């Protein structure tokens, strides 16, 4: 089992910045990929960015050049630095941890943190 706790959401004006943090605990040695997803009202949850244990990153096209994901394996933390925020970035952001056992991936989720960007 993996437990994830997010922090850092809030209300910000368009063009502003926020930094999300996620603390992992439990069976952390089994975590391969960590990432951030978001879900806006009436929309499906979507990948924002993820990062492997080795540091390889992947971003949604909509956030490339504005968001940066980073990971501190020693502290069991993952971060999302969000710059140049837009109203369309408004969503609940969820931390995700992927644990791969042989060929099966198991996903763990945090409780979510609200990000609201005003125009």
Task: Characterise this structure.
With 119 residues, the chain is mostly beta strands. The chain is built from no helices and 11 strands. The strands form 2 sheets. Strands 2, 4, 5, 6, 9, 10 and 11 form a 7-stranded mixed sheet that branches. The chain has a 4-stranded antiparallel sheet with strand order 1-3-8-7, with no helix packed on it. Strand 9 and strand 10 (104-109) form a beta hairpin. The chain is globular, with a radius of gyration of 14 Å.
Short description:
The chain has 119 residues and is an all-beta fold.
Globally, the shape reads globular
Low-confidence stretches: none
Backbone CA Rg: 14 Å
β-strand number: 11
Number of helices: 0
The N- and C-terminal alpha carbons lie at a distance of 40 Å
The amount of helix comes to: under 10%
| Overall mean confidence score, pLDDT | 95
- Relative strand content: over 45%
What is the ordering of alpha helices and beta strands?
A: EEEEEEEEEEE
Q: How is the biggest beta sheet arranged?
A: 7 strands, mixed
Q: What structural category do the secondary elements indicate?
A: mainly beta
Topology:
Layout: E1 2-7, E2 10-13, E3 18-26, E4 31-39, E5 46-51, E6 57-59, E7 67-72, E8 77-82, E9 91-101, E10 104-109, E11 113-118
Parallel strand pairs: 2-11
Antiparallel strand pairs: 1-3, 3-8, 4-5, 4-9, 5-6, 7-8, 9-10, 9-11
């Amino acid at each position: 089992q993996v437990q994830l706790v997010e922090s850092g959401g809030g209300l910000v004006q368009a063009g502003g910045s926020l930094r999300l943090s996620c603390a992992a605990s439990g069976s952390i040695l089994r975590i391969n990929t960590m990432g951030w997803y978001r879900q806006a009202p009436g929309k499906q949850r979507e990948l924002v960015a993820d990062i492997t244990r080795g540091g390889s990153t992947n971003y949604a096209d909509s956030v490339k050049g504005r968001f940066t994901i980073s990971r501190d394996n020693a502290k069991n933390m993952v971060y999302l630095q969000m710059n140049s925020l837009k109203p369309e970035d408004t969503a609940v952001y969820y931390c995700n941890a992927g644990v791969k056992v042989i060929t099966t991936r198991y996903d763990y989720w945090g409780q979510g943190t609200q990000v609201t960007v005003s125009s």
